[in-house]
Amino acid sequence: MKSQRTLFVCEFITGGGLVGTDLPVGLAREGSLMRDALLDDLIGCGDWDIITTYDVRLDAPLVGVRSIKVENGQDIWAIWQQCMSVVDAVWVIAPETDDVLLRLAKLAQTSQALWIGAGIEAIKVASNKYLMAQVLGDAKLPIIPSYFYDNWGAEHAGPWLVKPNDGAGCEATYVLDGQQAVDDWFAKDHQRKTTHIIQPYLKGIPVSISVLGLIDQAMVLSCNLQSIDLEQGQLSYTGGVVNGASEYWAQLSELANQIKAVMPDLLGYFGVDVLIDVDNQKPLTVVEINPRLTTSYVHLHKAMGCNPAHLIMNAMLSENSDLSIVSRNQVEFGVKHAV
């Protein structure tokens, strides 16, 4: 009997990446939901012996998974490297912030394991919001103009959006009313001039798409309505409805394939945030690309009516996947911390 292949699921937030820090409870909760949804789907595939790590302050993952407890003082990067060196495949759940996702992808490259997800170049571009806007803009795709403070000119009155160039989701994203407010915000911390970007604040329907990237095409798994609140000048993502934006499936699928053509190594699961302006002749605008699992994945199995991890693994191993069985069920959810 052939032995099972081994898969290492590396979840940064709950997997030990924040050992030695004051781990935010809400952030840990959302991280564990995403991790556990993926682990549950992978167990359901029945094809893999699964290894993962977990922060000593948190509960161990699901039964049926080999879990390595990470304690304060241990070198988590050395542990992850060791795990990657003995498995057949690696699937990472990590934010783009501080190049964590990119660093883990490069670490996996030093092993012989199959990397489940986007390639290095796609991660580099998607992790840098300014660069992503330049790359997609050069390809004539609809993007939000993005500036660093030193090359920004207030060509309109505002409002303006400021956010980390490498942030995830709505992390530290603020809406500022006019040029003076922007100037004052950057004057409070001059380091922001290199770490944050400025964008015109556009109104529209915020949606996201969960996408499966194959070698030569992108296949949309769900079209999701997002709930984004603006309170005291700060944006926050509070949940949404998976497949709540299914009426835009055709347009969003076309956009996903246009993005895939520009960034061909967007493989496996990735997410795209989009603004829809129904009063515009060209209503879609790309907000950002997430070259990894997103919060919507937690509810994707129920929304699709089938196992998304099975489809994704098939695509990564055989370069094809059958989406004819995929449903478009709507699943409403709320979050406190999300990526």
Descriptive overview:
It is built from 11 helices and 14 strands. By secondary structure, it is of the alpha/beta class. The protein folds into 3 domains: 5-116, 3-Layer(aba) Sandwich (Rossmann fold), CATH 3.40.50; 126-140 and 204-334, D-amino Acid Aminotransferase, Chain A, domain 1; 154-200, no CATH class. The protein has a 6-stranded antiparallel sheet. Strands 3-2-1-4-5 form a 5-stranded parallel sheet, sandwiched between helices. A 3-stranded antiparallel sheet has the order 7-6-8. The radius of gyration is 20 Å and the shape is globular. The termini are far apart.
Please outline what is shown here.
This protein is of the alpha/beta class. Helices cover 31% and strands 27% of the residues.
Gyration radius, rounded: 20 Å
What would you call the structural class? alpha/beta
Please tally the helical runs, counting DSSP H or I stretches of 4 or more residues: 11
| Biggest sheet features | 6 strands, antiparallel
What is the number of beta strands?
Answer: 14
CATH superfamily of the largest domain: ATP-grasp fold, B domain
Regions with little confidence, pLDDT below 50 for 5+ residues? none
Fraction of residues in β-strands: 25-35%
The run of helices and strands is EHHEEHEHEHHEEHHEEEEHEEHHE
Which percent range fits the helix content?
25-40%
- At the fold tier of CATH, the topology name of the largest domain is D-amino Acid Aminotransferase, Chain A, domain 1
Shape: globular
Instruction: Give the second-level CATH assignment, the architecture of the largest domain.
Output: 2-Layer Sandwich
Measured between the Cα atoms of the first and last residue, the distance is 41 Å
Average per-residue pLDDT, rounded, comes to 92
Tell me the name of the CATH class of the largest domain.
Answer: Alpha Beta
